[in-house]
Design brief:
By secondary structure, the chain is an alpha/beta fold. It has helices spanning 44-52, 119-123, 126-139, 162-174, 186-195, 207-213, 228-238, 273-276, 283-297, 314-325; strands spanning 2-6, 19-22, 32-42, 61-62, 67-74, 86-89, 102-106, 110-112, 153-157, 178-182, 199-201, 219-224, 239-247, 265-268, 305-308, 332-336. β15, α10 and β16 form a beta-alpha-beta unit. The relative contact order is 0.16. The model has no long low-confidence stretch (mean pLDDT 97). Bound molecules: NADP nicotinamide-adenine-dinucleotide phosphate (NAP). NADP nicotinamide-adenine-dinucleotide phosphate binds next to α1, α3 and α4.
Amino acid sequence: MKAVGYHQPLPIDQAEALLDLTLPEPTPGPRDLLVRVHAVSVNPVDTKIRRRKAPPEGEAVVLGWDAVGIVEAVGSQVSGFATGDRVYYAGAIDRPGSNSELHLVDERIAASAPASLNDAEAAALPLTSITAWELLFDRLRVPKGGHGGAGQTLLVIGGAGGVGSILIQLARQLTQLRVVATASRPETRQWCLELGAHAVIDHHQPLLAQLQGEGIGEVDMVASLTNTFEHYEQIIEALRPQGQIAVIDDMDVLDAMKLKTKSISLHWELMFTRSLFQTEDMGEQGKLLAEVARLVDAGRIRSTVNEQFGAINAANLRRAHALLESGKARGKIVLEGFE
Ligand SMILES: NC(=O)c1ccc[n+]([C@@H]2O[C@H](COP(=O)([O-])OP(=O)(O)OC[C@H]3O[C@@H](n4cnc5c(N)ncnc54)[C@H](OP(=O)(O)O)[C@@H]3O)[C@@H](O)[C@H]2O)c1
């Protein structure tokens, strides 16, 4: 089967950073779906693994987590899906990636793709939706529906990125939170407003002063989605005493002592935790993806796709990685079909 991968970690401007490969077809384990991949999206984690992880001599790493495709075969214990089903999912960090014509995924972390979206539109959603959902409802524990979050403000740092683009929508659709996003360019600012942010401030300017300028002042919770280390002091300043911060990005060190004076709670979200540790509740990811599909099909959530980079091949994936590494992505980049 066709796949895109690499043999050694290289900067993205080198031709061998991602290569077109031919690999053996995988065989499903007991809970696996064998999926013929139609479309994928690219996430910053793809670029991080590509830069860091070297495969054993003579082997290739295949990246890619988000996927949409058709189930071609199922493992002996699969109960929720059948051949021919159209599924979407974000996969597992410790398994080969979705940049391959055929791909394996555990049925518990997959769901039927939104019927109202085409493959490219649907591929934009799974990984970031799982992240945003778990951050909001499992980590910050904002009650879903009803008056959940009423009277409280959520600040989303990096609002126009992949995760922010779906987090803003989930917070607006499923809670009563006031949502303030950060964006630094006219097009990302406008994007956040279109997705439902009540207000947008600039992450390159002092946060609390801008929040005060908006008549908001200190916020109750911060979803710090990117460059947390750069904004950390300002986030603490912008949080009210006993507020909460949820973090998803990477940094060498984060000083939790700085949170003591205000009794701020720190939450980590990693959307791969459930599949990596095969937690008893890993099926919650399949359920939340099914709920996101229902919200999409009801017209309440829109796809976050912004750029379509063509077929799934090494040249197009190198372009997608380069854009993500620039820090200037808006929404999601998707690729569709193997030529
Ligand atoms: N833990 C998890 O489960 C998990 C899941 C998904 C992603 N992540 C990580 O979370 C991070 C964000 O992912 P993503 O997909 O949302 O990224 P992304 O799509 O690449 O984010 C791009 C956005 O970041 C904003 N940005 C750039 N520099 C910034 C800065 N200095 N401060 C604040 N915002 C800045 C940009 O906004 P402007 O153009 O307006 O400046 C841009 O719209 C990545 O590190 C990713 O690996 C973790």
